[in-house]
Amino acid sequence: MLRKLTTHLFFCLLMLSVSAKTWAQTSEITGIVKDEAGQPLLGASILLLNTKTNEKKGIMVNGEGKFSIKGLSANVPYSISASFIGYVTKTIDNYVLKAGEQATLLIQLNPASTTLTDVVVVGYGSQKKKDVTTSIASIKAADLENQPISNAAEAMVGKMAGVQVSQGSGAPGGALSIKVRGVGTITAGSNPLYVIDGVPISNDNINTLNTNDIASIEVLKDASSAAIYGSRGSNGVVLITTKQGQNGVSTISVNSYTGWQSLAHKIDMMDAYQYAQMVLDSRNNSYTDAMESINRKNVALGQPVVGFSVNDNNGVRLFNTANNTNTVMPLEVLPYLQGQQGLTNTDWQDQIFRTAPIQNHSISAAGGSELLKYYASMEYFNQDGIILNSGFKRYSGRLNLEGKKGVFKYGVNFSPSVINEKRVNANGAYNSNGGGIVASALHYSPIFPVYNADGSYNFAQNSWSPGTITTLPNNTTASGNGETQAWNPVALAMLQKDDVAATRMTGSAFVEAEVLKNLKYKIQLGIDLFNSSEDIFRPSILPQSNTAGNPLSEATGSSRTIKETNWLLEQTLNYAKTIGDHNINALIGWSTQKDDLSGNYAFASKGFISDQIEFIKAGIVTNGTGTKTQWALASGIARLQYGYKGKYLFTGSIRADGSSKFGKNNKWGYFPSASLGWRLSEEEFLKQSESISDLKLRASYGLTGNFNIPNYAALGTMNNYGYVFGGTTPGVINGVAPIARPNDNLQWEKTAQLNLGFDAAFFKNQLTLSVDVYNSNTNNLLLDVPVPISTGFATELKNIGKVNNKGIDINLGTQQQFGGVKWTASGNFSKNKNKVVELGPGNADIIKTGSVANAYFITRVGEPIGSYYLPVVLGVFKNQAEVNAYPHYTDTQGNYDLNTSKPGDFKFKDVDGDGIIDLTKDRELVGNYLPKFTYGFATSAEYKGIDLGVSMQGVYGNQILNLSRRYFANKEGNMNNMVSSLDRWISESNPGSGQDVRANRAAKGSNGTTSTWHIEDGSYLRIRNISLGYTLPVGLIKKISLTKVRVYVSMQNPFTFTNYTGYNPEVTNRSDATTNGEDYGVYPTAKTTSIGINITL
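Structure tokens predicted for TonB-dependent receptor (1097 residues):
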């Protein structure tokens, strides 16, 4: 028994000794990662590679910058890499641990030159920035993290030279306008192509994308870089890459913020008492003018005027008396003129604008192994608009998977999103159908309340009722209303329903195989599915358009649905090999893409039994339409990238596109490009330079196209047409008739661009500089050209025009360390000059009207696209002597009229010098909406966990046609006016500012004509973001297993410095390049204050 027990005991001891020996053979590495100043670098990643077995282990440092990896094999070589965004990765090769060793490492990372050493995404691949030979702008995830933004385009504002991003509308979920190196088209679309994870998307509004998912945004600016996208590259290409998991590193991130939005600034409008006085002045001046007109008709004093009246909103009583005239006045203004206090004095801007909440909450997880890496996220975003009853909600998710096994690499990206949007009709004229809420708020008289005594909405300004005539002390009379029709803006916002529900799913899947050494085959399938529905309801209580005081006889409703499917199939072969000093990367591929769009629209204008039932099915459908369109694109691509000794660089590419959109004689287009680079810093004469860290010269030339035209523009198309048949009892038979003439030669607009530039870094990469100059010519512009009447058509779309854009882009950046303070700063400057070179046979001007009939735009050879073409105001007539000494107007019959102008009227320039002012002819090209230059600046500082960042952006030299000012500074006394109208001409002894006309009910002397008086300087400097954050000390968070916690407060758009008198100098409310730059009641942008938290586990 004792022997047996001894045997068992010996065996146990033997096993313990074996185990101890085994444990003793494993080793451990601990360490700390620090920055160049010796401070712990929180968030750095450590990756260990056993170069013998290819086994990998990864970990992130803790809140003190420390890491520990146990269970490592002894006596085998390891490769140890430390990396962090914005820093140069450091790798220790062939590190061998002894058995049982506990090694301790100190790893110090140095800041990367963000201009030269980053990896940037290019079309169908990526390159190190130092090897790029084209012009590409780039921002990374780190540029997005410290500011709460809801749209990916917001991250680009003011950050990229040559890329102008404008927020023309502040509507929740609204799209931003992006222009790359100016405007190169007149008829075709000017928006860039968007590519998300390699898949070109069909809808250029990227508001469905969660900005926390973005790893980088690159913009291909020159034709050489964009030529790989061929017929869609002329307007630039925006490449958005989403995040992927890291091998061996698992993280969970939570980002959350909540904030409050408010109107950035109000427009100063008159109060009720100021308004009443202007109403009186306008009518006094108006009827004095009418009296003189009557005198010219030889009407005797004191006699009734028969057959002649002054139109004052449906009712006037005008008699020729010894004291000129009895002025017809709105009865409602009488108490204000009498000075009664405590009367209604409504500020309509305060009524429609509100302080609105905004919030965003997202969570993401990333990690995995070489076999399968993952990135997953979910987001909820909710933004109430600053205008009543408007808002935007987004629910989004993402799952990105990528892995490698053997010779195969594979991946799937999948991102669904749901949008719920409450729209209001904020834009447009005060008297448009449905009413522009913003314009109505500025228009509506302050003497009227929002609600009647019974709580119903007040619609007094929608009617004119004679009322009782009251004689004032100065022998004027008050009667009726006399207001130009408008809708109660609060009622418009609250009673109309415009709800949009949309879903979108973007996704892609790929498999890549190394079929031979250095040769990889890749196949990718991409899809973009978009569905939306819009339901609009307008209750009968709201007044009908252009019907004074009359409510709708019926409620109206409409429903619209859109379904779009865009799919992509691409196959590529990529060969990459280094042979001695030669580096070769060659790509060939084939791509097919197809887009299917269908939609239905139904309108019901009768049959609704109640305003409470807001569904179109509750009414009788009186109109309906449907649409179905398609386009397809087949492409072949090829590219060669070559480098010799890392200093002589070449890239050449060509793409062939075949499109269904163009004529049968021009189905295929070919888009080549070539670029060269020379890294002078690698030459012996610069290698030892202490001041020049890196220097590269670049030159590129390429050809791109623009296929943003209607899908069937090249085809002869037909539409429904009613034909009358029969004799004594004819009937209308439904048939078809041609509406467009076919053009078999229709082809792409093509842009050829030359780009010269350099990238440089100085003083150990502390200062970076990038400069590009370019000259771009867009040929074959698509224009509607008149055709002989014998064809049965008025115009035909042809390729006949040419536009030139030339300019310069400059980027400058620095990174500095002052003791414990890290400081970075970057700035950019862009100047672009746009010029029309050709406009077809005869180079005839293209003259169009914008939102107002007499607001003309001109596109003329030698000038920028879409310039303003208006009468020129030289000043204001101060007295009758000035009037008598100046050319006058023609009357309605074209006769010379000496009595039209009065003191206090505008003095217009006699442009053609014929001695007669004819405002249909006396016009000049007087400005343009395109800026002379744009700029941006950003700076940030960090000290002991405290970070402060400021970014700003601006434009200079553009003009805005302020049509709001045309109406709300018209001094006609029929709608409210801006406070600036108090500086109007009153009399010869009181001329006011000398720059503003007299009040006049009938706008005599063409004072109401859109002119240079309505053009304003649109230059501005806007502080885009100010953020202050604090990263909690490690000691407070490490006990609960958190890696990083940052709390912050942020302000967006807090300050704007501009002379523009409207809401927003960024306004771009028209998509037509030839009639842009108008401001006519656009949804204003908001300033936002938010607080947030970023947590990393």
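The domain at 24-108 is CATH 2.60.40.1120 (Immunoglobulin-like).
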